[in-house]
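Q: What structure does this chain adopt?
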Amino acid sequence: MPKARTQDTDASTQIHRRVAAQFGAAAEAYTNSLTHSDPSALDRVVELARPKPNDVALDIATGAGHTALSLAPHVASVIAYDLTEPMLAETARNAAARKLSNVTTRQGPAESLPFPDAAFDIVTVRQAPHHFADVRAAVREMSRVARSGGRVVIIDSTAPEDDSLDHQWNHIEKLRDPSHVRNYRPSEWRAFVADAGLNPFFEEFGAASEKGGPMDFAAWIRRINTPPDAASEVERLFHAASSELAQALHIEIVDGALYFRVPQFTIACIKE
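A:
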């Protein structure tokens, strides 16, 4: 195997291990996350996926299963797919609690999906690609497993197009969560889906929320178990943010508590 290829494989393995370690310990917290369980955000995914009763769906990096479980009542079956076993166990518990019998779980990385070509009518991924070892490969895999006419819906935290703001925001994210790889710019996402042969029919630059409102900084830190020293540094960077960064993150202080909004990009595509 060429040396460069070996290095790429080693780097991907290290990223996968960090993600598994970080999220395995936080699985239950993601069931209760107000951001990941936001009903209006989940309704938007379902709307963009355009589900039909006979559709077969795949939700990649499902986490606690919020997106998969939202799709389940509208389709024939859903596979909830994730790198971490504790997250899949959480998804299975959540599906059972809702008495959803058409949800199954499968473990593996997003960059190498263990499914045949053209296997799914719907492929979704939400709030996860910033952890992928190779996002371009993952999007190609999403396209590969989608049927002709299938819908691929991608929603993730994003970075501003401005170089400085991009660097500052990704630095903050990495401090909070060492398994973070990169928030990609909208222009990068457009390039990824074009490279994968997907045809966008909808895109939106917005912000993640908690039940329609701003995100609680303390809950954001607590959810991923950020070490105290890193949490203090992230909080310092929020308080010291330039006016441009504060505007990009919608940072506000209310009664001494920090609130903000994570920039988010949505792109929904058709597999032609």
